[in-house]
Design a protein that fits this description.
single chain; 304 residues; mainly beta; Porin; 14-stranded antiparallel β-barrel; two-stranded antiparallel ribbon; 16 strands; globular
């Protein structure tokens, strides 16, 4: 996953750089001017708005290609995984990207199990009061026999750059399919925004298209391993890989990595009856750590 800001966010920082109140010292002025020139050069090379996802998106969506380890957050990686939802569930996840309050990222997900397939609702927020991105999505997933699951999601995406510069919005959709090769081996594909939702009155800035192929192996009820090859528009190919191990039914551990940004993540989850609390940490070699917290609740879950 790329951490490169989109064109809209770059314009926001461009304007702020030339705010007279920000020029505190001569050295600050030089730094701001130099950085602004770099951003301007970068804008000419930028074709699409990078999709905003949590740094540890590989963590929250890890169980998408699994029978035993899928949860309500799995559909954020592939909507077809909603078909494997065992109980109606709700979850929230928050992270402070690189320990910066301006880069807070929050995601909430609800999965509802029905006899006609399962529904999901996802809400996301990134940024702070002067610049933020939001997303609200409605998903549906169901089984097509014993071997194939399918799913789709429609999203409303918004960008707001303070009250002075205004806001913009667009719609997009995602779709995915998962093939259960065997009881242990699962594979699938996912497409995000293939036709390209566009922002603004002139429709000059579009959301990036993302295509991915995933595979998961349920070695046992305790151990699971997964990998996903992802290609985002105007970005290099990225490989997300991770594994999960349950020491006991109440305690799990997850570790993984993302090749495009050379980041690694780790997390521990503690389950008490219907609640699960995960503490996560992502490490970037240049930008530092991103702490995260996940809280999940399953309705009508049998106590263990």
């Amino acid at each position: 996953m790329s951490d490169r800001p989109g064109l809209t966010s770059q314009l926001f920082y461009f304007v702020n750089f030339f705010n007279p109140c920000n020029f505190l010292t001569n050295s600050d002025c030089l730094i701001k001017i130099f950085t602004t020139l770099l951003i301007c050069c970068h804008c000419f090379l930028l074709n699409a708005q990078t999709l905003r996802r949590p740094v540890t998106a590989g963590y929250t969506g890890l169980g998408a290609y699994s029978f035993n380890h899928a949860d309500v957050f799995s559909f954020t990686a592939n909507q077809a995984s909603l078909a494997q939802l065992k109980n109606t569930s709700a979850a929230v996840y928050g992270e402070r990207r690189f320990l910066l309050t301006e880069l807070n990222n929050y995601t909430a997900a609800v999965g509802v199990k029905t006899n006609s397939g399962n529904f999901g609702i996802k809400a996301g927020y990134f940024g702070f009061s002067d610049y933020n991105e939001t997303q609200l999505g409605l998903a549906y997933g169901r089984k097509l026999g014993n071997k194939v699951d399918v799913g789709a999601q429609f999203n409303y995406n918004g960008i707001r750059i303070s009250s002075i510069y205004g806001s913009a919005s667009t719609v997009s959709f995602e779709a995915g399919a998962i093939l259960h090769v065997s009881e242990k081996l699962h594979t699938g594909i996912h497409v995000n925004n293939p036709v390209g939702g566009k922002f603004g009155k002139d429709q000059q800035e579009k959301l990036a298209s993302v295509y991915s192929f995933g595979i998961g192996y349920d070695a046992s009820e305790k151990f699971f391993i997964s990998a996903e090859i992802e290609k985002e528009e105007d970005q290099p190919v990225n490989v997300n890989a991770g594994m999960q191990y349950k020491f006991i039914p109440q305690l799990l551990a997850r570790v993984g990595m993302s090749s495009a940004t050379s980041t690694a993540w780790v997390g521990l989850g503690l389950t008490i009856k219907s609640f699960r609390l995960d503490v996560t940490t992502n490490y970037h070699p240049q930008l530092g750590i991103t702490p995260g917290l996940l809280l999940l609740f399953e309705f009508n879950k049998a106590s263990k």
